[in-house]
Inverse folding.
């Protein structure tokens, strides 16, 4: 899902890491390497631009690839806390409304996920997220400091666009309630391989 990152890692430390993930520790020697970090930044920017293009095409929302991509992408469920993430967005919006000159780096809040068709709570959360997006994305006072997107029809293909573009991955759920693994390696590598 992240061929740019895969290529960068392979160029830096060889192909062995694909079979032996512990070899990723070799990347530590590059933590201060300006050329490597520049390429890493370019890979991230390309992934963000790719997702921004998808969002523009499928959601009709123009997002800034240079904004912080803050995502909450999981199965929609009460204990996954999408509702709390929506409250975070509302709090940010209200802070900007109270002080339009508030100095914050522009953010794009991206939600996605699936839920059982009969799960009323999930439907209401999705409706709330889309209502927040409608208000935030059409408020000229916000000056594009924040955008909100709910990516529809979440599947592997959209995940392959979202995960490599994420800068903040809000995979929050109640401790001990997680029904499936959070894929720590997936988030550590932001979709490499």
């Amino acid at each position: 899902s992240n061929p740019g990152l895969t290529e960068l890692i392979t160029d830096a430390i060889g192909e062995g890491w694909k079979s032996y993930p512990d070899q990723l520790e070799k990347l530590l020697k590059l933590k201060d390497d300006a050329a490597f970090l520049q390429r890493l930044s370019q890979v991230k920017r390309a992934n963000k631009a790719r997702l921004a293009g998808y969002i523009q095409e499928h959601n009709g929302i123009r997002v800034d690839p240079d904004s912080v991509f803050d995502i909450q992408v999981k199965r929609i469920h009460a204990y996954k806390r999408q509702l709390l993430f929506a409250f975070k967005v509302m709090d940010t919006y209200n802070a900007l409304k109270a002080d339009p000159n508030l100095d914050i780096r522009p953010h794009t809040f991206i939600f996605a996920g699936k839920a059982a068709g009969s799960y009323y709570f999930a439907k209401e959360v999705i409706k709330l997220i889309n209502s927040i997006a409608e208000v935030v994305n059409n408020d000229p006072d916000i000056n594009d400091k924040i955008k909100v997107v709910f990516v529809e029809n979440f599947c592997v293909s959209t995940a392959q666009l979202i995960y490599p573009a994420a800068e903040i991955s809000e995979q929050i759920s109640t401790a001990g309630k997680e029904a499936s693994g959070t894929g720590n390696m997936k988030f550590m590598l932001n979709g490499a391989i």
In short: DSSP finds six helices and four strands in the chain. Helices lie at 3-13, 34-59, 82-98, 120-137, 156-165, 184-189. The CA atoms of residues 5 and 11 lie 10 Å apart. The first strand starts at residue 68 and ends at 73.
